[in-house]
Amino acid sequence: MADYKEAPLATRPKTLDPAEYFNLSPEYRRSEEARAALRSQLKRQYLLQLNNPHRQELIDDPALTRWIHARGKNVYPNFRPTAKTSLIGGLFGVLPLFVLYFVFKTDRDKREAKIKAGTYERPYKVSS
Amino acid sequence: MRGVECQSGKMAALRAGLLTRALTKGKTPRISEIVLGTRAASGTTKDMLPGPYPKTPEERAAAAKKYNMTLEDYKPFPDDGQGHGDYPMLPDRSQHERDPWYQWDHPDLRRNWGEPIHYDFDMYIRNRVDTSPSPVDWRTMRNSLLGFLGFMALMFGLGEMFPSYQPVAPKQYPYNNLYLERGGDPEKQPEPVNHYEI
């Protein structure tokens, strides 16, 4: 398995990750401790609310509120027409209208011409 | 740290707001105005919600604190106008990869309360996209699949171009092509029908 190559939808297994064996610097440990401190603070807040016998309502998750706000209401205020966004908008919003119009129109015109000339082969039987 | 009392305070303020607005002002206020206009000072305030891209280091520090992340972990999306704002860019890892044996606060989502949510979280839940390590590496799997599909497509295409069937002929009926059964005159002599050649 030494030739295991990562891909966007296939990460490296933890046992083949070299960082797991070599990361012992104080900076790494300090940052891990900072993350653990944040995690334990959040855990404490959650457990206080969860085990409170006088709590009658649902526990709000502010991270969830932020996620919903970011995906729903924060997109348009932060949108800016740049080259990339205009290109994406044109390619997916404007171009299909014209392309599909021309494709359908030419296909139907060809079929109509064939019907008028009498050479159109009906693919399905109307009555058997 | 949001207390429990703020929730009931919010509801009371909401009811009071509805009543006063309905009684004092002539125009019936919309629900959005009431909700945003009168609420308790606790609850979700505007500075807790995502905002625009952080430009100064102070804004970055404030954003990292807002999202409960350390300053070096907090990486916002690049500011290319696509509408992400200051939301953090977390590694694209699915929930399949998280420890199944740890006591998560939400076990089905393998997530703890308050943990920053990936922008595409609903894609990475355990029913959907899976980024966990594959038994064979991805390129080998992709090449095998495309090779098989390509081979089958090639063979079906060749089969359409050069069809090969059992030879068949029109059905041959006896008794002069069933002359009497088809309503032929029994007095008349039918013309002989030969299905063979010698």
UniProtKB/TrEMBL annotation, chain A:
Transmembrane parts of this sequence: 86-104
Subcellular location field: Mitochondrion inner membrane
Topological type in the membrane: Single-pass membrane protein
Pfam families xrefs: NDUF_B4
GO terms under cellular component: mitochondrial inner membrane
Keywords of the record: Electron transport, Membrane, Mitochondrion, Mitochondrion inner membrane, Respiratory chain, Transmembrane, Transmembrane helix, Transport
Similarity comment text for this entry: Belongs to the complex I NDUFB4 subunit family.
Role this protein plays: Accessory subunit of the mitochondrial membrane respiratory chain NADH dehydrogenase (Complex I), that is believed not to be involved in catalysis. Complex I functions in the transfer of electrons from NADH to the respiratory chain. The immediate electron acceptor for the enzyme is believed to be ubiquinone.
Protein name as catalogued: NADH dehydrogenase [ubiquinone] 1 beta subcomplex subunit 4
Originating organism: Phoxinus phoxinus
UniProtKB/TrEMBL annotation, chain B:
Pfam families, per database record: NDUF_B8
InterPro entries reported in the protein's UniProt record: NDUFB8, Ndufb8_metazoa
GO BP of this protein: mitochondrial electron transport, NADH to ubiquinone
Transmembrane segments: 145-165
Keywords: Electron transport, Membrane, Mitochondrion, Mitochondrion inner membrane, Respiratory chain, Transit peptide, Transmembrane, Transmembrane helix, Transport
Compartment(s): Mitochondrion inner membrane
Membrane topology note: Single-pass membrane protein
GO cellular component: mitochondrial inner membrane
Record note on quaternary structure: Complex I is composed of 45 different subunits.
Entry's family note: Belongs to the complex I NDUFB8 subunit family.
Protein name stated in the entry: NADH dehydrogenase [ubiquinone] 1 beta subcomplex subunit 8, mitochondrial
